[in-house]
Amino acid sequence: MNEKFFALSKEKQNRIINAGYRVFSKNSYKKSPMNEIAFEADISKSLLFFYFKNKKEFYLFLMKTAEETTMKYLLDSGCYQETDIFEMMYKGLEAKIKLMRQYPDMSNFALKAYYEDDDEVKNELRKIIAPYSKLSTNKSLPPLDPSLYKDGLDLRLMYQDMYLASEGYMYNMQQTGKVDVDKVLKDYRQLINFWKTLYLK
Amino acid sequence: MNEKFFALSKEKQNRIINAGYRVFSKNSYKKSPMNEIAFEADISKSLLFFYFKNKKEFYLFLMKTAEETTMKYLLDSGCYQETDIFEMMYKGLEAKIKLMRQYPDMSNFALKAYYEDDDEVKNELRKIIAPYSKLSTNKSLPPLDPSLYKDGLDLRLMYQDMYLASEGYMYNMQQTGKVDVDKVLKDYRQLINFWKTLYLK
DNA sequence: TGCTTGTTGACCGATTCGGTTAATACTGAT
DNA sequence: ATCAGTATTAACCGAATCGGTCAACAAGCA
């Protein structure tokens, strides 16, 4: 790729990146046209090909950027240092929401890319995804101190409940399209407090 | 459309319908090619155009079929007659899962169609969607008898928790792609029993 | 053998695609 | 005003794909 891309204003860089995320998140790799991306970024197709030598390079660049950005946001959120599981979940969702505010289609793009199997990109795509995929999964139950929770409580089911509800939260938010950061966070905070009264001693 | 379509074996009808759901659920209307649909249904493109006069007609037929089928499954499930909210949620999800087993991409198709805005189909699409969209939404809290639940419990938050977790359930299931009916239902039953011990007196 | 019905391959004109290139607009120093 | 260098684009290209048609083929059956 042309290093001059990084000399562009951050605003213009992000406009191009977000246009890429949006188009690639709505269609498969093959059916995402570069001219559509250029149009959404409000630049000409020629300019897009000036900064990125071809479609494949641009696509892989987006994937790499998406992962680096996600990691950065999650690390900065402090959710990994958190020992209180409720605060951990809150900080995790908070980071995801902040991310969505700046890059609204990034997570959908990454999700779609994860299942992309076009011959032109799949091999190199896997290579980019591999080192990150082992991190960041919240699916499994973290170690918990049972003495903190109500007696007889099934901690596995408790965690499953909270994990699924968080997923449902993100899902609903993306469907409706609007990312009202403050309201969503307030609602989620309320739900977490509800869980605390329910689960904690 | 050609009425002879309905004279086909149910298996062949469903093969064509499912191929349509799959392709249209993965791309926008405009970017869903009829030859791709024909290929996935294992028939020739010519035959597809023999049963449906053009792409638009086929697409709208799929939408109408999707809604009728969904309504049928939901009504048959008995979830609307159920007064126990836990059983109601279970039966609702049970119906959705049975539906997914026979038409794996139908719900994704319907979701995508809901936001489709291609000029060629959007007007007639809205007309088909409108009468159904007021039904079937579980987002709002149904009337509940507070005396059944633990004192001081916030019923709104309880319902929100369960609703979001159910959404997360469906979401996770569709992402992973596999629809292991029995396992999913067993897991969900377990989660519901967990909620019962948590919420009921 | 013929007749009907189900099904297809080959084709058409229009459009779209990724990518190139020559020309234009812009900028800042002289 | 000029000019050099850079940022940006319109116009173009060959190849592929699209929705849709149609004449021909296959299959059953009288």
Features:
Tetracycline Repressor, domain 2, DNA-binding, mainly alpha, elongated, 201 residues, homodimer
Please state the overall shape of chain A, judged from the principal axes of the Cα atoms.
elongated
CATH superfamily of chain A: Tetracycline Repressor, domain 2
CATH-derived topology of chain A: Tetracycline Repressor, domain 2
Q: What is the second-level CATH architecture of chain A? A: Orthogonal Bundle
The computed structural class of chain A is mainly alpha
Topology diagram in text:
2 copies of one chain form a homodimer.
Chain A: H1 10-26, H2 34-41, H3 45-51, H4 55-77, H5 85-102, H6 106-115, H7 122-133, H8 155-176, H9 181-199
Chain A binds a DNA duplex (30 and 30 nucleotides) through residues 4, 33-35, 43-47, 49-50, 53-55.
Note down, in words, how this protein is organized.
Two copies of one chain form a homodimer. Chain A has 201 residues and is mainly α. Chain A has a single domain (4-199), classed as Tetracycline Repressor, domain 2 (Orthogonal Bundle), CATH 1.10.357.10. Chain A has helices at residues 10-26, 34-41, 45-51, 55-77, 85-102, 106-115, 122-133, 155-176, 181-199. In chain A, helix 5 (85-102) runs antiparallel to helix 9. The longest helix of chain A has 23 residues, at 55-77. The first copy, chain A, starts with 9 loop residues before the first helix and ends with a helix. The model of chain A has no long low-confidence stretch (mean pLDDT 92). At the A-B interface, helix 8 and helix 9 of A face helix 8 and helix 9 of B. Chain A binds a DNA duplex (30 and 30 nucleotides) through helix 3.
